[in-house]
User: Fold these one by one.
Assistant:
Number 1:
Amino acid sequence: MFELKEVYKSFISEGGQVEAVSNVCLRIDKGEIFGIIGSSGAGKSTLIRCLNLLEKPEKGKVIFKGHDLLSLSKKQMRHERKKIGMVFQNFNLLASRTVFENVAFPIGTKTKSEVKEKVLALLEIVGISDKVNNYPNQLSGGQKQRVAIARALANDPHVLLCDEATSALDPQTTASILSLLKELNEKLNLTIILITHEMSVIKSICHRVAIMDKGKIIEVDTVINIFTNPKKPLTKSFIQESFNHKEIRNLIDKNKLFKENSHLYEFIYKQESASKALIATLIKKYQLEINIIAGKIEIISGESIGHLVIIIEGEDKSVKSALRFLSSQGVLVKEFEENE
Amino acid sequence: MNNLEKLFPNVMDLKVIIFTETLATIKMVVIAGAIAFLIGLVLAIGLVLFRKKGLFPNKLLFQLIDSLVNVFRAVPFVILLVAIFPLTRLLVGTTLGLAGSIVPLVFATAPFFARQIESALLDVEDGLIEAAISMGCSNFEIVYRVYLREAIPGLIRAITITLISLLSLTTMVGAIAGGGIGDLALMYGLRRNMLDITYITVIIILAMVYLIQFSAVLALKKLNKGEKKNEKVVN
């Protein structure tokens, strides 16, 4: 769907030149929900704007369905943009137009009844049919974003770009917008590219994720791989945040749970490992004392991922062989880390 | 009726003149206002499009319009009036009467209009423009369907403020025999010491200002419906 080759974009700011997007290469496939996560200032917003040339990259290629967008004429580019829908953090609805008129806004050459049919169908899809004649400021944030999504879909785009689409919304509304996006992806086979600073967004709907830092993509993988086996420190800290490492550490310190001679581990395991009585085996077979500090099950890309934080007491030797046993059962064993 | 005659002795005698001069002022405001609005609109759109972050950044054109607007805004009206006499004569053949007053009024009002409209257009959020670009709108569509449409409440406010200031300028044209209510106040109220004429001109001007504001409030209210943020009262 999209292919970025060595895309580069910099800005001049007070402190000199800032490389917002630095030689990014990326491939996004048809039908996937692709997330880009990074802290603020990582360049993710600039990157997603490079996809429809709201920001023009200085170097590199942006290839959309086989065309290099940078080589198109203005008119051709306008045509391509109709195939790339975009929604924004602050909705950007036209205040002087009703919900109906907002959604009808981008629709080009069509008869009045065709437009009406299309708009009503879109409003039905995003679940806001009852607000047709309302004005944007009569709507809640979540409703506004639904209208914005309907508007972005008005020209039947192949891909939807979401620029922090849920960042201005409360958690509950965020969840409902995310499930709408997921539904659109499944029903319409719509490719979705979203940027966010929240791992929870990535976790709940993305298939693949890119982690961005200082203008560079530092890691790209399926969400499940990123969660079970993050490689780069920044990725790890995103995951740790998601698993509440900081709170767990506080809990351990506060209650002085950690004694000398004991080890602190986290286990990450997929559904199939969960069915076995692994912890019981550790206690019985390896004669270890086990204290479960925290346990959680995350649903990631439709798979349940178990996460346990455990203090093990026992002889070094039996601890080692116990961990080996766990690894052989498909459990990912890691020293508990907490890095900022 | 007798009381009224006692209070305004000259007004009753001069009511025909008062009527015609009021009409002259209205004509000045409407004609000069309409022309100045169009010129101001073009200049304002230029300022918005050519600015650094605009759709067609062009430093040269921006600075040209910007300084033109500033120069004409900086010159006090009475001086501008006299200074462009030759141009006025060239354009309309006279410096007197309605025709002679329209030209300087347009020159004085258009830059003011341009600044007011510019600020109304700049109030349209950048995000809306970005959204329109992302939907594949052409620059013309963005000006016409986004900037102008979304700025309508701001434009109404711009028109109100400008018309009221234009109204006050028309009274000054009277000083060089342009006619209108200002002329009336000078000729009769001042030179012939007819105090009641001065008062009646004040009343007429106030009535006009009120009428302009009232129409604006009405127009905004009608537009409002869902747009609560535009409910600011004019002036």
Number 2:
Amino acid sequence: MNDYELETMLRINSIMVIRKLGSGSFGDIYEAKHMGSGLHVALKVERKNAGQSHLSIESTVYNLLRHGMGIPMTYQFFSNRRHDVLVMELLGPSLETLFTMCNRRFSMKTVLMLADQMVDRLEYLHLHHYVHRDIKPENFLMGVGLTRHRLHLIDFGLSKRYWDMKENRHVPQRRGTKWAGTARYASVNALCCKVQSRRDDLESVGYVLIYLLRGSLPWQGLLPNSKLQKAEMILEMKLSTLPNSLCAGYPNEFYNYIIYTRQLGFEEEPDYRMIRCTFLSLLFNLKFTNDLIYDWDHAEKNSGKSGSEEDRVVVKKVV
Amino acid sequence: MENKEKKQKPLKRHAQVPLIIPKNSVISTYAVGRLCSEPALVRIEVKDLIGSGSFGRVYQAHVNESEEIVAVKQTLYNPKLSQGEAEIMGQLKDHNNIVRLIMHSSVSLGFPSVDYVLLVMEYMPMTLLDYINYHLTVLQPAERLINVRILSYQMFRGLGYLHLLGISHRDVKPENLLIDNQKMVLKLSDFGSAKLLVPQEPSISYICSRLYRAPELFAGYELYSCAVDIWSAGCVLAELLKGYPLFSSHKHDRKQLRLIVNMLGTDGLERAPEILSKCGNSLHPRTTRPSWNYLLNTAVPQDLCGLLNSCFIYEAAARISPMMACSHGSYDELRIMDAMALPMPNGNPLPPLFDFNSLEMGTDPKLWVNLLPIHLSSMEDKYSVVEAFEAV
């Protein structure tokens, strides 16, 4: 970070940047430390431009959800002439990172335990009248320390309220709205440029689950000439891919889930409890226990063993 | 009644201190069975003393030279009590989650003789307090969570049966919840404070242990309902998750009430004016409830958070009812395990959780959709493929 003005603002707030963690479509993520308390935090920095500030929207949503399980804590939001900064709880790796670490394949047990938590997080978000609109593995993070086994939902920069607070009813359906998000996991209705509602978040969860099980999705690998054409090609591929072939080789519950989310009405409230019970029943049916021990926990054990082997080799060399 | 004492050692009686029955004493007395049958002569062989408190003492014992271990509770006979413990327990039919009263009797012991009431009950090896202190902490988090659900479900179910009879326990706390930690069975015990609550009839408000007392009792409100037990049950559930009591203790009722309100926030307090008037004007301004992860300093699943919030409502009428609590989503995992005959983490089968009796089955039919472990409706049955494709 070489922006003097931004560094000054952070120093005034007793925050020291440690390293850069990654970049999003709207800003950068840094690991930082609060000098007063020694707490390690995550910084989300967004450069101001002519467009709407996504980070202020995100900060509002985080404040609304602040007591939820699986929602990171936000500590501060401040801005200067050119930047917005959100100081929040530092979390662990994302599902995409863990997916790559596990050779781009998750076991059925891991996917079902994650599915239960994904639906739980979305139910909590929808309970507060917001839809996420950018469900993807990169936006699901595991915790650190005591919350290491807990799935967190992040990145509410594209979130939108689906409930009209003044008229106390669902927002109406419109067509022709600008579409934003990740085309790979977006719902069919989203790619058709319709207003997104609760059903679209849940349909995205379905695609994420299939992706984690199969390792890829049929509409990956297309070669578009532009971003707009990419979305059109993905939409065409999604419409032509039957749910049967999408979920072939996996339990019926996933096929039923895709069908259920696609047939949900625009204003219809999903039956979260039924969905979670279905995945939980499947988990128990396959003789797994809901012990929150995932594939990457086993991978860590194996790497631990190989590490100890290396240590032995070193000891031999020294001797 | 004829009283005989064998091997009874004469002990010097201290004023107001109940007599300790020596080990291996044998008491012959006429005891009344559970169904209020004619008194019958029984021999009670008293063994170890296993508990004592302000209520009296509890011993292990054998009855009629049987090998079965029973628990015998000895309390001073008090004719002023309008509804004795034996009378309350006698009304309770066999229920999985309520300690069974086998028989009771009045005896005169010691010299000079003092009248006592002996309650012969089934024996349970452990209290929930012992379980929380010595067993729960060594479990893995997932196993601990399953056990919390199994035990708290049975607590609510036992309270549900009581409340359907119009009886309020009025002293729900871990010491009064007996469990078998191998079978994971939990039973309500100690009905010394229980009462048949009649609407619009005042009851004493100085009741229930301090850490588990509902806020309307601290406020001195006397027209309370069975919902005071729900607040206590919420405290027990929080203690199961936290490992020690949720609230700390203050001597004064107003201070205790203020502590509770400051901890849980003032949301909903305006709908409970009898509590609000007692909080005084030194209350913090309107605050929302902190998250249960913060209050309990541990990871609490969202469904248990919802259940806790339903218990800790200041307006007593708005608190969740016990049968509604049993139908809560927090216990769906148990229904699935029961439907699939899955064992508990310790390898034993689930205790009977869903064999409701006729009184419990008379409750609201809407509850049954969520209450019974019937096989869950499949998404495939609800929505046909053709309709789904037409919708797309």
